[in-house]
From TrEMBL:
Ranges where the GFO/IDH/MocA-like oxidoreductase domain occurs: 134-247
Upper classification of the organism: Bacteria, Pseudomonadati, Pseudomonadota, Alphaproteobacteria, Hyphomicrobiales
Any Pfam family: GFO_IDH_MocA
Limits of the Gfo/Idh/MocA-like oxidoreductase N-terminal domain: 7-123
Molecular function GO terms recorded: nucleotide binding
Name used for this protein in its record: Gfo/Idh/MocA family oxidoreductase
Gene3D superfamilies linked to this entry: Dihydrodipicolinate Reductase, domain 2 (3.30.360.10), NAD(P)-binding Rossmann-like Domain (3.40.50.720)
Length: 364
């Protein structure tokens, strides 16, 4: 069947509800959500009633015994690792929210499980999708942009005590990290997606905005494998929320739309070095076909991959790169040294970046 409808179970009814609204409902020709799972029956029933979903589970293990094809994990971060492994072992395809897992060691175990599994795994990085980033990616991949010079990435968001009232947030044992893991991870992924891998990072982390264990302000200076440089800054204490990415290449400078939660959606400023470069860009983008933003396109492309019509759009290798940045930040900030990437199993923070005083709790 060329356009087979795949069955999905969404686990976790917080952002899971957005996966339904933005990801599965607009792709009703590709997916049918047949089940929901949440430990909280009230939340479960409210979302299941809203979307008319009959399968309702408060037990993940019971859900895995059903014949649903895709398990979409939208639970808090500390739960992801166990649920991904169990779902892959049960022969399911797996979609999982960021941050995928809590260390590079766990990430590499996921990669090993994936190799043995029947199903495919797609981590979520929905900020990559939409006309803005898609056009920039196309121009860069075509070679028109030229040599990368510098990138700046700013994740300037606002989170208050109300946000941290949810018990799993703000703690090492459950959130597994702070603004680096939960918020800026999207924007940092876009930097490597568009400009290539980071080879060295000197970073600092601090907790200044909220009364939490994990960091809420970060800043780093990076070298990319291409030789380009990048600066990464994030805070949860910005009174105006923006995500801003600016990329300078030899032939083109790009600047993102500043929409905090969808920097890919609207068109970016594309500033050419000359009329000739502009003409090349115009020719490249001449027959542009609209790319819906966020989950709609990520889920549509996952379906293409399941149908054998393309690669999995976001992979565990992408998650590894994102978690290397996190690992490097924590180590660099603690030791005041530059960290070289990629990070191998002999790195002191390969198994965990959780500070020693919180480590016992995180391991429980
Ligand atoms: N991609 C994005 O833009 C985005 C946005 C928000 C959150 N997230 C990520 O999504 C994940 C969930 O965040 P959230 O804000 O929706 O959290 P949340 O607390 O609002 O919702 C999580 C839900 O999971 C349920 N749950 C917890 N453990 C469970 C288990 N073992 N089995 C079944 N259900 C369980 C909880 O009862 C809760 O209803 C986190 O990893 C977060 O970082 C991503």
């Amino acid at each position: 069947m060329s356009n087979e409808i795949k069955t999905v179970a969404v686990v976790g009814c917080g952002i899971g509800r957005s996966h339904l609204i933005e990801g599965y409902v607009p792709n009703a020709d590709k997916y049918k959500v047949v089940a929901l799972c949440d430990l909280n029956p009230e939340r479960l029933n409210a979302v299941a009633d809203e979307f008319g979903i009959e399968g309702r589970y408060t037990s993940f293990d019971e859900l895995l015994k059903t014949d649903v094809e895709i398990i979409d994990i939208c639970t808090p971060p500390m739960v992801h690792y166990g649920q991904i492994i169990a779902a892959l072992e049960a022969g399911k395809h797996v979609v999982c929210e960021k941050p995928l897992v809590g260390s590079l060691a766990q990430l590499d175990e996921i990669v090993a499980a994936e190799k043995k599994a029947k199903g495919k795994l797609m981590p979520i990085f929905q900020y990559r999708y939409g006309d803005g980033i898609e056009q920039v990616k196309k121009i860069i991949d075509s070679g028109i942009a030229g040599t990368p010079y510098v990138a700046t990435a700013e994740t300037l968001w606002k989170r208050t005590a109300e946000y941290y009232a949810v018990p799993w947030r703000g703690k090492w044992a459950t959130e597994l990290g702070g603004v680096l893991m939960t918020h800026a991870i999207h924007i940092h992924d876009i930097i490597t997606y568009l400009m290539g891998p980071i080879s060295g990072l000197f970073g600092r982390v601090a907790t200044r905005v909220n009364d939490i264990e994990v960091e809420d302000c970060i800043s780093a200076s990076c070298e990319l494998e291409s030789g380009a440089l990048a600066s990464l800054t994030a805070t949860l204490g910005s009174q105006e929320e923006i995500s801003r990415i600016r990329l300078a290449f030899s032939n083109v400078t790009f600047e993102s739309d500043h929409a905090p939660y969808s920097p890919g959606g609207k068109l970016w400023r594309i500033i050419p070095a000359s009329p000739e470069v502009q003409a090349q860009i115009d020719a490249l983008l001449k027959d542009w076909v609209h790319v819906p933003e966020r989950f709609q396109t990520q889920m549509a492309r996952f379906h293409d991959a399941l149908m054998g019509r393309g690669p999995v759009p976001v992979t565990s290798a992408d998650s590894r790169r994102a978690l290397e940045i996190v690992t490097a930040f924590y180590h660099s900030s603690e030791t005041h040294t530059e960290v070289r990437l990629p990070i191998a199993p002999d790195h002191p923070k390969y198994k965990s970046w959780v500070p020693a005083q919180f480590r016992k709790e995180a391991a429980q």
